[in-house]
Fold:
Amino acid sequence: MTSVHETPEAVPPAPDPASSPAADRALERRLSRELDGEVAFDDYTRHLFSRDASMYAIVPRGVVFPRHEDDVRAAVAAAAEYGLPVLPRGAATSLAGQTVGPGLVIDLSRHMNRIIELDPASRTALVEPGVVQDRLNRAAAPHGLMFGPDTSTSNRATLGGMIGNNSAGSGSVRHGMTIDHVRALDVVLSDATTARFEPVDEAERARRAGRATLEGRLYRELPEIVRANADAIADGFPRFWRRACGYRLDRLARTDTPFDLAKFVVGSEGTLVIATRALVDLVPKPRHTLFAVGHFTSVAGAIGATESALSLDPSAVELMDRTILELSRRKIEYASLGALLEGDPEALLFVAFTGDDEAELKDRLHRLTSLWRAEGHGYHTLLATTPEQRGALLKVRKAGLGLLMAAGEGTRRPLAFVEDTAVDPVHLAEYTARFKEILDAHGLSAGFYGHCSVGCLHIRPFLDLTDPGQIATMRTVAEEIKDLVTEYGGVNSSEHGDGLARSEFNREIFGDTLYEAMRQVKRVFDPDDRMNPGKIVDAPAMTDHLRDPALPPAPEFRTRLDFDVLGGMRGAADRCMNIGLCRKSGTGTMCPSYMATRNEEDATRGRAGALVKALSEPDPKKALGDERLHEVLDLCLMCKACKSECPLGVDMATLKAEALSHHHDLHGVPLRSRIFGSIRFLNRLGSATAPLSNLPGRIGPLRILLDRFLGIARERPLPRFARRSLVGWFRRHRRHAPAPGGRGAVTYLADSFTTYTEPEIGRAAIELLERAGWDVRLESRGCCGRSSLSKGLVDDAADKAFKLAHLLTETTPPGSPVVGCEPSCLMTLRDEHRALLPGDSAVADIAGRVAQVEELLVKAIDEGALRLDAESWPAGRRLLYHGHCHQKAEVGTAATVELLRRIPGADVVEVDAGCCGMAGSFGFESEHYEVSLTVGEDRLFPAVRAEGDDTVIVATGVSCRQQIFHGTERTAWHPVQLIRAALAPGSGGVPHPGAASDTTDRAQR
Structure:
């Protein structure tokens, strides 16, 4: 099939005239000598750091990854000598373009991420700028504390970025903004000297002002700027309190607090200083959070109910419109919210109540329900009081931006340029109505969500910036909204900052006098304009440096896989809008390699950005063979978590498979890839020759040779082959199988792995299905092609997919289910086969018939066809379940969890442990072995080790079971083995596996 990329002609930005290859190489060499951290000036790294979550892109000259403050100082000094600006960067989730710029990017997130001290007595934490907000909250939680501002990006936003931006979040009505929680900052100034900013009295200020340094100049001249512009400061700032715009001269002008440069530079977007340490306040963490979720027939109706909610002192009031609700229902990761809702609301209003007295919170919920009913607000109110309900609500609320972005198509995207205004909530309903009138007048649609409790709605109009007329429309709308918010006494930037999107308008917003005072501030801090120039003051037009118009048209490019999005393969990669959810840690699966390395290029957005660059080259096929590109793609485990967890659905596993195929076209297929791609043949051969075939895995010199010549890690135990495969067992079993019941036919897919290494799993599944009344047939003549696809052997995978799909269609009753026990193989029939053969009716037929064996067994148990014994060994046990990545991405784990819960008395715990790190062949490969274990050590191994000996470890994936045993020496069982063991005696139960002599052998397989 053919994917064609079409974009209008555009003129790329002119290169920096100060740039020269020789100067860049000299600077790179100097930085490499002087810094302990890494230095990168290659084209791919520069491209990845040219973007953030905004609509802008500016290619930097290079990137450094400092390990400590001395590295930051050295980078600033070197950049100054070469005439380059510097730009500090954290997670780069900024929406207004604060973290893109020319010059030298200083990435503070990779190494400078230590929590240096957490003091519960003083309720403070001393942190480096790369500390992620959720990580700080996890460390503070045992002490009953947390960081007050609660951003939707808390699982990847860094404290340094929050300080640079003056972030707020949903709880700002209770906890204010980041500026309210910063006590002191250690900073690097524009001349590479250091200073500590903290509140000082007048005597200390005067003492510091006497220093003949840049720091001394700050303490001398800033008070003079404040005195000279006192009237403008008093009158020129917007009246509404929730502000993330301009320089905070209003804070310096206060007479009721000490002179405090720490708070002054909060929100300065890296234009004044680079923070290297921060002492921040912590607040008490409430024991309980309960939600009332109002259902409304219109956005206006939801906004109109805000004042009533605010009368009951909530901690947050959040709006979400139908656009986001609809998108959440389509994604497995977020679909649980839909099951809680009543009817089909046009908008929801989430009202959160937090505190330590649960009864009092429930009383407020009921009072709100009564108040809304009496005032006629909404048609239903859901009271979310259970952890499951709250989790579903919070997951969707925090993903609102990403879900809204997913509504875009091609280069028509919901853009952030008027998304951060705020007015007093008293005016919010009227203001929003007039806002919508402006959008309607320009023929624009938009998604509505945000913080009604503080009058801030994130309204993002859909625009295509590759159309010059739409760029003009964007600018006109921005000007009209700026005037509208000023009319209501509100702010143009309430938590997302000025950046490139709004800085241009600051002179109009603040007035000439106050704006000139801000320019003076910039000159005092940064006389040579080296600190992130072009933000807050002296900014370019908001229409400069736009990302989409600057992307060159991509030539026609033929792909093997079908990318069913506008723009083909490049369009699939370019769906990424860099919101950075793939940089999260501590929860979910995406992105396991980033969690292990903390390297931007090892996150989904890094790989997507690299592919966009390659596919934008004049010869994209040649670019896909670039070795630097494949360094970026290399650590992708192809877990497919990004397909479900990324709100925009960037499917990096499919993109990598396609890219690998073109790399093979240019460079040939490595022998190891051919071996792993033929794993079914090799496993079948291994089973046929067992036990001799198991010897190489135990002979040290042979393992050394395998490591040296094939790159198969000598430390990794090889699978052990079973002499009697599932195929052989089934052939004999059919002679004595019970007569089929009335449930009809079911086909069990004999996968390439358990069939030959763990045949007892297939036996258990088949016996259970037969006892439930199914007529089971075994399909062992084909391979799904999963292993071939993972190694980029796409043509081979397509051939296998065609043969298997047509075989199943021709030899199974129409509509009968196809099941299996290995998720990676079974899910390939549902997903990748359709991408390999998009027009094939047999593929579509089989994809629609694939079912998890767990689904059939749950139904059989609930209908009484299978009875489980309360006296069996699994009964009453704690079961720790780890789901397979592909299962989680395609269908979710609910069916497996429900099956395990059918075991009498079982305490089923699904561990949030992400990817196991094995990922099929990935964990066997020598160069990936350590990363594989690091991924496992992130959460899975510690969770397993924390369990007592009586806990049963459960995992659906063969790779997961191998990894768990290798990393923890604990045996993991497939769910069907436990159900088979739990069958009531009359149903043929089996003994406790602890009595079996082959328990360890089976786990090692």
